[in-house]
Amino acid sequence: PGDTHDAARVRSAPAPVTDVARLCVCDLLVAQCDVNCCCDPDCSAEDFSLFTTCSIPVVTGDSQLCSQKAAVYSLDVEANPPERIFKLIDQVNPSIFCIHATNYKQALYLKTPEIPTPENFDQLLEKFGGASFRAEPDSWDLDTDAQNAPETNETSRYEYGAPVQTEDAFLRLPSPVVSSWCSDANPAGFLVNQATKCIRSVSVEKCDSIQALSMLFYINSSILAVPKSSQMVNITVQSIVVQAVNGMRTLLSSSDVLRLPMVLDELCINAVLGVNYHITHTDTGEIIEAAAAFVLGAISKEALSIEQSFEISFTQENTQPVPLSGNPGYVVGLPVRAGFQPQGYPFPAAFLFAALSSNKHSQLTILQSTSTQDCLAAQGARAPVLFGYNMISGCKLRITAAMKCQPLAQTLLDVLKGQSFPEYVASFGNSQAQDVLDWVPITQLHISEQMISYTLQSSCQIPVSLGIEVKWTKYGSLVNPQARIVNVTATITTTTLKQLPSGRERIIPITSSVVFTDISSPAEPSYKAWPTINIKLPFDFFYPFV
């Protein structure tokens, strides 16, 4: 009887893990309608009327399942205007080797692999170094009642761009909508880093009753850890900065006490001028921490409006936040990310540390021009290399007869390359430091084969320019191509400096430049040209015509 009962439980079909009605593989553009993508939720009925075909007519989940739902899309061209037709059908897999029940929970989501380090390498080698290995699940859950629970898929995790829900509505991130005035109806999207500024109408006499000027307005609602769940995450106050009327800012030593707006000496004090949210989440899309940093200020009686700034950022737990320059491709105007290979490579964990430590912001930099144009004074002043921007900078070096060649050449090299010139550049704007294959090595060249000579004779070689060429290409779909860096070359140009007579001086220019080159191949035509036939016709082929 026990075996029969267990067999009955196995034969019961589980709830589908993937909702095919919400699955869309051709949806490439965020918040925009993709052409001929009939499953794109961003497309309206007007968009569907302009489609010529459905690029993906059938959408299914796992093709190895014995039975599953399939979403079928088509166009009714006879309707006026043409409209999209959607059907949800049952699809049966005729294979005798199909999967009947997906009851192995660990296989239903992607688990972040453990990164090899010098500390755990031997342990991982012992576990996975053999010809075969197996990982037994903690438990085999055949409870179909739990699998058939309603709204299981919708409450499991946050998805990219989904509004961050609170106990009353959603997390507000005020922003200008039609005009520059603040609108509190803008929800914060999960994993969408935003920064907004808007104008708020104020009245000093009523400042204590204006909700948008109070700290409580931004932290009084707890955030749902996952959508439609009962687990709450409170928003804590991370820091409070007080801004005086003259603009001077002071960081308070304690942020435990809420400072509410109030009228004092014809001033509205403790009014919220800026809020910076920081959300920490897991790799499975669950929010675990939320913090807010405030900027409070005083408003004079004459002011009729103030400018407020709002910002939100997301960080995955157990990771160090790194500023990105695109997702995935580079965005024009954002810094080129860089790093260097440390000792202990090929362990990717060490590579992560190096990429973050190459300079303050993990960026490729060049010499920054100063108003004095003095190279010796400009040492240490660096400007980030911005993707897509050709740049040139420089300074002037005053050389006297008393200068020694060796320290002069080394100083100029430090001015051109910086104290720690990176060895690698991220190929994408969102390349993770532990993904070693996503980093492009920087090729360093010298125009002259002769290396820099530190001679004290009548002449010496000193570097006078650094030229960086960044080659990039368009990667991915032609509809939404992504910028990807494929090659970086840094060229040092040296010149021969002859020794000056005593009492004489000489001024030479020192320059740095960056050039971006698009090496994308042109798109191939959709048709194929007719082949060329290379044959020789007989001499009398056109006889009797000439």
Automatic annotation (TrEMBL):
<dbReference type="GO" id="GO:0036038">
    <property type="term" value="C:MKS complex"/>
</dbReference>
<feature type="domain" description="Tectonic-1-3 N-terminal">
    <location>
        <begin position="13"/>
        <end position="120"/>
    </location>
</feature>
<dbReference type="InterPro" id="IPR040354">
    <property type="entry name" value="TCTN1-3"/>
</dbReference>
<keyword id="KW-0325">Glycoprotein</keyword>
<feature type="domain" description="Tectonic-1-3">
    <location>
        <begin position="326"/>
        <end position="518"/>
    </location>
</feature>
<dbReference type="GO" id="GO:1904491">
    <property type="term" value="P:protein localization to ciliary transition zone"/>
</dbReference>
<keyword id="KW-0970">Cilium biogenesis/degradation</keyword>
<protein>
    <submittedName>
        <fullName>TECT1 protein</fullName>
    </submittedName>
</protein>
<dbReference type="GO" id="GO:0060271">
    <property type="term" value="P:cilium assembly"/>
</dbReference>
<keyword id="KW-0732">Signal</keyword>
<comment type="similarity">
    <text>Belongs to the tectonic family.</text>
</comment>
<dbReference type="InterPro" id="IPR011677">
    <property type="entry name" value="TCTN1-3_dom"/>
</dbReference>
<dbReference type="Pfam" id="PF25752">
    <property type="entry name" value="DUF1619_N"/>
</dbReference>
<feature type="domain" description="Tectonic-1-3">
    <location>
        <begin position="156"/>
        <end position="316"/>
    </location>
</feature>
<comment type="subunit">
    <text>Part of the tectonic-like complex (also named B9 complex).</text>
</comment>
<dbReference type="Pfam" id="PF07773">
    <property type="entry name" value="TCTN_DUF1619"/>
</dbReference>
<dbReference type="InterPro" id="IPR057724">
    <property type="entry name" value="TCTN1-3_N"/>
</dbReference>
